[in-house]
């Protein structure tokens, strides 16, 4: 049985960094599921059609990390048919041996509800805005507005809203280093193995 690590949390909480580190540590596959929604939004046209016809090349576009792509992603991510079109790809990815790490918003609640490890990564608004601003070379106050708008949309949508699974462990990265966050995540995985 492949081992699945499900990681969810709001934007710029540190979940991607933890996901990459865990995948490297355990030799697991890693999927940043936000990229699927970003690529779907960036394709333009009918978002349902875009999600259904998503191809590997679509994930290679170099504008997918921008704040605009993030906003567009969170709008189309509220459409139930867009989400359902992307479920099978994610589940198939998660089924790979020897294991995988998937990070997103609904991995522990919808995509892989039976994952033996579920992490919900959070950080304060100020810390998240500062991180994203440094990453994108932008203004922290503007980033804060954008993150809060995106989080609200992700939390309040009807289909697969952002929330921790009942059996998720919360890691707050506001006041700890990347090394400490990764060590905490590894300790949680070790207890489940
Ligand atoms: O994680 P990232 O910031 O790249 O995600 C972009 C947007 O894609 C999120 O704001 C969210 O609306 C959507 N998303 C989602 N479910 C996921 C991953 C991302 O709805 N599993």
From TrEMBL:
Primary location class: cytoplasm
Keyword Aminoacyl-tRNA synthetase: no
Positions with biased composition (Basic and acidic residues): 147-166
UniProt superkingdom: Bacteria
Entry's Gene Ontology cellular component terms: cytoplasm
Top EC group: transferase
CDD domains: CMPK (cd02020)
InterPro entries: Cytidylate_kin, Cytidylate_kinase_dom, P-loop_NTPase
Region called Disordered, residue ranges: 139-168
Subcellular location: Cytoplasm
GO biological process: pyrimidine nucleotide metabolic process
Pfam families found in the cross-reference section: Cytidylate_kin
Binding-site list for ATP: 9-17
Enzyme Commission number(s): 2.7.4.25
HAMAP family: Cytidyl_kinase_type1 (MF_00238)
UniProt similarity note: Belongs to the cytidylate kinase family. Type 1 subfamily.
Protein name, entry field: Cytidylate kinase
Organism: Paracoccus alkanivorans
Gene of this entry: cmk
